[in-house]
Design brief:
Helices cover 45% and strands 15% of the residues. With 359 residues, it is of the alpha+beta class. Among the domains are: 85 residues, RNA polymerase sigma factor, region 2, helix turn helix motif (Rna Polymerase Sigma Factor, Chain: A); 67 residues, Arc Repressor Mutant, subunit A; 94 residues, no CATH class. The termini are far apart. It has 15 helices and 13 strands. It is elongated, with a radius of gyration of 38 Å.
Length: 359
Amino acid sequence: MEAYNPHLGYEAEVIQNNMRMVHAVAKKYTVVIGNGLDYDDLVSIGTFGLIEAFRNYDPSRFNGKVTAFSTYAFPMIRWSIQKYLRSNRYAVRIPRLILDRLAFIRKQGWVDDSAEDIVLKTGWKLADVHDVLKHIEGWSVSSLDQVISQDDKDLTMLDVLPSVADYTGINVQEFLDILASTERTILTLRMEGLTQGQMAKHVHKSQVYVSRVLNRIKDKYSRFQSGELTREEFVMSNKIRESQMSSIEWFVDEKTTYNPSIGLNKHGIHVNRRAANMMKCEAGQCLRVGFDPSTNRLVIQRGENGLKLRKWDKSGGLQLVNKHLVSWLEQKTVERKRYALHESQGTYYTYYIELESRA
């Protein structure tokens, strides 16, 4: 059954009566003809937009602002053609500047003019004009199955193309063995299609760090392909490096907050993230604080009673804020600094800090 719009009539009649509008829009895009398209293609694509406009047209939807069908249909036809061209216009993406100049040359009818003549008419650089002109004949795409004549024989383009065998390659596993574990992880994530930002979150590093690792992988890959870097050389260099580093005595900062530690300050007690994880506590839970003079230890016990923990920062740290606790610690002559947290053996949820040692 033929489509019918109560505001316009039957589809075939309306489409036939408005084809002049489709041609009017299609003529505005004749500059793209030559990219495997002709004028009839533009008209066909525009007709789809006209049909869509016919099926969706309802004056009551526009609050009286749109009364004529042509006012509604014209942009629909134009949008239909533009949408198709955006998706299918070029087989190879061409820079925008070249496209604009190419359209200008076609519009002026200078397609058959020499590059020198176009330079005189436009003032463009000769090299730029040559870049534009070489795309004029390259807009359309030919099929490899296209039949061509050669020596009275019907051959396809695929038949006359030279056969090239590429036997180059690399041992992927051998290259992966050269990479460090972090490099292998990032390379794997990259092959899975993750962005640098997503990879950074996955490995808990910054995006700058991921970018540097990717550049390092590229450098190793280039050296591996050229033969400068082999697995044997890599393993040997690692052994030499390890032997050279084995005699080094490294400095260890006992104040580092990367270990479970408790900080005593003017507000009360600060619990870093690792200490909070060690005690399995979170904001809202309670801690009891005690002092053992026989061992000079500050004892901390998790329970239902005591001082309530608060959030301290985004890193996961917690804090006990209590001015009476601060005064009590001062009476015990406890120095305000950071201490290492230890777990008490044999007592559940009980921990302590040695007041004479720094964390």
